[in-house]
């Protein structure tokens, strides 16, 4: 027993207690009554209670009150100081006096506002424990339940009477421990917990787990002693599940967005679904969609509208890997407590399906889960359809690009070549890398490599345009710097024309063009002129003189390795990219040894993963030296270098063109200088006949004499009066060249019947395999080529060097 101070449940500071006799006279009172009435006990003794009231008529007649009933009421007291105080009172019978007197009455009184506040507190507490949607529980200091609203929450597995129980008696141990930890912290620190989410699963039905929002505060007695903790539980399961579904949909959308690979997108998606949404998830896709083909039965598909619409599905992703696979289900929608399957539909086509399964110890699927899976399936179907369309476009672009590229291996009198071309991965589409090996006149060859900005069909089409333009300009036998200048003008004009067309479209229909622009941005396509920020490296090699001439439009120089394995990058200054204009292109001329290796490449090989260009070029040079391209087959060398420098997924096309130089032996070349005299035409015929006889080409003597006679005659007549140079070269074909000092190009025409001249070039065109002319620094050269007889096709000297390509 201890002293009961103020603030305890027994505190009488505001409570007045009086004992009245049967007439209403005060027999005794408490100190609280003295304070309330402002009178001492002696003053109150034997005084009628009516005299203490401002309106005695509101007090009941004590003699008429039944001795078995209690009464409540309000009145106005007049204190000893003369003040009036509204008070509430309660009258209870206490039996008769011990000396046989009349009845006794216990009167309890307090200020009316105090009693009203107490009534509100009682009503508040009573209503708290009557709530059914909000759980309210009082725990003692040992975390035993003292009182709860009934029921605590409408869940199965909760005892009807929880008083004296701990949470662990009916809640899963790990869930109970988590809540006990929170309540213990509140007991120890006094810091309330506000809206802490806790998982509650009952022992009886653990699958029906609920998420509760817990708020708790400590209970203290008026003397400061901790006597327990009060907890308020609100069921937020549906709100949290809705939030989780939205977050899951967001993460699933992120996993699907930005990917044009069905395999990658499906793998990321099942990783999102498992284990949060399901224990096992799988994505199946139709084979025709994966291959980027049209739906069976469509007009575009092989077989047309009558083709079979049923296409087998292929599983592209399952999570977890190695787990029990989800059983195959029909393509129609299936919704069960543990298994759901939703088809992937795009327009009127079924592209595949998503299948998910939960283990028996997890809550079953709900209608909202099915709605979520439908939404994920619709977005997945859009990704699959976009990937299908992209795969089709990429396949067309790659096919077009490969059709525009030369064979991977070529042989000529000038070089052996081998190329490696790897298109970029499916995420970005085929790029605009290109290369070419162009035969030129007089056994020479041109090597070209270029890179067009952008990806997809547009870049491929641009590459085709540039390749065609380069071949056309190369046929004019222009020097590399001159060829790039013409190509630069062409690209600049194409860019200007495209911009004009775009401006005209804007003026005609701005709204329609804006929609087209949005569609282009959504599909990742580019305008044509955007792809013309192209680079190009062009070089020519002459196997007779061993001269190599090159020029660059924004492209890295080639690697040049001599026969001894030494070498590197020539000191070539690249000009601006094509289409910039305004600056000349620098030409560099080298003399390369027989058996040297030239390596032309694009930036995808030396900048994998955006490596620094200088670092990548140095690595390429090292790898080429280590690969021994002078002794190994070029194709094997190229593949080894590419595998080393670009081993992983490609974000840009990779192109490598290797060329091993050859030299035409001196014995297969002869050159004469003829003075400008008419009699030298006969001398030219005699020299040609003697040389061809020495080469064993008697079959070509008559034709070549006639060709040389016509060419020398034209040179002497229209060549400006200077010496004429006649040259024969045997290099796979028989080449006859005549050079003079005039820059006037010959023109073949059809002579009239009565004309005596004008038939020379016509005869040459009929007698030779091909003919042409090219400008030189000192004038021009007219050349012809004749096919060698089969027995004499091989050069007399070692025209080839190195291993087979």
Keywords:
805 residues; alpha+beta; Beta-Lactamase; 5 domains; six-stranded antiparallel sheet; five-stranded antiparallel sheet; 31 strands; rod-shaped
If you had to describe this structure to a student in words, what would you say it looks like?
A 6-stranded antiparallel β-sheet has the order 16-17-26-25-22-23. 31% of the residues lie in helices and 26% in strands. Strand 28 and strand 29 form a beta hairpin. It has 5 domains: 16-120, 2-Layer Sandwich (Beta-Lactamase), CATH 3.30.450.20; 134-235, PAS domain (Beta-Lactamase), CATH 3.30.450.20; 240-302 and 310-397, Beta-Lactamase (2-Layer Sandwich), CATH 3.30.450.40; 405-661, PPM-type phosphatase domain (Phosphatase 2c, domain 1), CATH 3.60.40; 666-792, Histidine kinase-like ATPase, C-terminal domain (Heat Shock Protein 90). The protein is rod-shaped. The model is unreliable at 299-310, 518-531 and 794-801 (pLDDT under 50). With 805 residues, the chain is α+β, with helices and mostly antiparallel strands. The termini are far apart. Helix 10 packs across helix 11, helix 13 (613-626) packs antiparallel against helix 14 and helix 15 (680-695) runs antiparallel to helix 16.
């Amino acid at each position: 027993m201890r002293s009961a101070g103020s603030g305890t449940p027994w505190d009488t500071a505001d409570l007045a207690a009086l004992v009245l006799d049967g007439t209403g006279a005060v027999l005794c009172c408490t100190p609280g009554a003295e304070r309330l009435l402002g009178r001492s006990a002696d003053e109150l003794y034997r005084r009628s209670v009516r005299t203490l009231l401002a309106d005695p008529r509101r007090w009941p007649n004590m003699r008429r009150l039944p001795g078995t009933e209690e009464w409540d009421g309000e009145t106005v007291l007049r204190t000893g100081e003369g003040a009036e105080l509204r008070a509430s009172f309660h009258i209870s019978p206490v039996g008769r006096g011990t000396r046989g007197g009349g009845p006794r009455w216990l009167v309890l009184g307090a200020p009316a506002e105090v009693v009203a506040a107490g009534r509100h507190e009682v009503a508040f507490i009573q209503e708290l424990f009557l709530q059914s949607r909000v759980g309210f529980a009082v725990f003692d200091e040992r975390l035993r339940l003292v009182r709860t609203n009934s029921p605590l929450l409408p869940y199965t597995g909760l005892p009807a009477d929880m008083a004296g129980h701990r949470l662990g008696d009916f809640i899963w141990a790990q869930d109970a421990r988590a809540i006990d930890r929170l309540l213990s912290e509140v007991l120890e620190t006094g810091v309330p917990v506000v809206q802490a989410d806790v998982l509650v699963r009952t022992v009886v039905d653990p699958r029906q787990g609920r998420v509760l929002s817990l708020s708790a505060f400590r209970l203290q007695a008026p003397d400061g002693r901790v006597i327990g903790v009060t907890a308020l539980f609100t069921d937020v399961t549906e709100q949290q599940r809705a939030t989780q579904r939205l977050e899951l949909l967001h993460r699933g959308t992120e996993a699907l967005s930005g990917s044009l690979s069905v395999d990658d997108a499906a793998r990321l998606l099942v990783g999102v679904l498992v284990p949060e949404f399901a224990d096992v998830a799988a994505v199946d896709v139709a084979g025709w969609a994966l291959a980027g083909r049209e739906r069976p039965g469509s007009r575009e598909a092989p077989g047309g509208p009558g083709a079979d619409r049923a296409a087998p599905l292929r599983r592209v992703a399952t999570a977890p890997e190695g787990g029990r696979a989800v059983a195959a289900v029909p393509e129609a929608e299936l919704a069960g407590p543990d298994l759901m399957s939703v088809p992937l539909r795009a327009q009127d086509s079924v592209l595949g399906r998503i299948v998910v399964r939960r283990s028996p110890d997890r809550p079953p699927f709900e209608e909202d889960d099915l709605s979520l899976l439908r939404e994920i399936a619709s977005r997945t179907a859009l990704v699959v359809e976009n990937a299908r369309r992209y795969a089709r476009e990429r396949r067309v672009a790659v096919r077009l690009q490969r059709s525009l590229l030369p064979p991977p291996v070529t042989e000529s009198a000038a070089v052996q070549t081998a190329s490696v071309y790897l298109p970029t991965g499916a995420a970005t589409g085929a790029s605009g890398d290109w290369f070419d090996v162009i035969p030129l006149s007089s056994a020479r060859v041109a090597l070209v490599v270029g890179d067009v900005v952008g990806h997809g069909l547009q870049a491929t089409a641009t590459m085709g345009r540039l390749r065609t333009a380069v071949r056309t300009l190369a046929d004019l036998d222009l020097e590399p710097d001159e060829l790039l200048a013409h190509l630069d003008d062409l690209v600049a004009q194409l860019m200007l024309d495209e911009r004009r067309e775009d401006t005209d479209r804007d003026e005609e229909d701005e709204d329609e063009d804006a929609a087209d622009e949005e569609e282009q941005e959504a599909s990742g396509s580019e305008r044509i002129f955007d792809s013309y920020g192209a680079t190009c490296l062009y070089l020519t090699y002459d196997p007779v003189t061993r001269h190599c001439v090159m020029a660059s439009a924004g492209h890295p120089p080639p690697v040049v390795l001599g026969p001894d394995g030494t070498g590197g990058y020539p000191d070539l200054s690249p000009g601006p990219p094509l289409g910039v204009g305004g600056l000349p292109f620098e030409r560099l001329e080298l003399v390369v040894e027989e058996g040297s290796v030239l390596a032309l490449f694009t930036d995808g090989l030396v900048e994998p993963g955006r490596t620094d260009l200088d670092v990548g070029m140095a690595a390429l040079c090292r790898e080429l030296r280590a690969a021994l391209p002078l002794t190994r087959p070029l194709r094997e060398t190229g593949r080894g270098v590419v595998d080393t420098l670009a081993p992983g997924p490609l974000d840009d096309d990779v192109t490598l063109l290797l060329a091993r130089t050859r030299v035409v032996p001196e014995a297969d070349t002869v050159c004469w200088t003829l003075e400008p005299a008419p009699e030298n035409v006969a001398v030219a015929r005699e020299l040609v006949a003697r040389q061809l006889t020495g080469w064993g080409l008697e079959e070509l003597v008559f034709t070549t004499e006639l060709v040389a006679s016509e060419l020398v005659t034209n040179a002497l007549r229209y060549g400006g009066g200077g010496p004429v140079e006649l040259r024969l070269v045997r290099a796979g074909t028989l080449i006859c060249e005549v050079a003079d000092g005039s820059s006037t190009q010959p023109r073949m025409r059809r002579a009239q019947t009565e004309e005596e001249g004008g038939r020379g070039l016509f005869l040459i065109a009929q007698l030779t395999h091909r003919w042409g002319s090219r400008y030189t620094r000192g004038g021009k050269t007219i050349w012809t080529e004749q096919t060698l007889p089969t027995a004499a096709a091989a050069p007399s000297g070692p025209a080839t060097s190195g291993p087979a390509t």
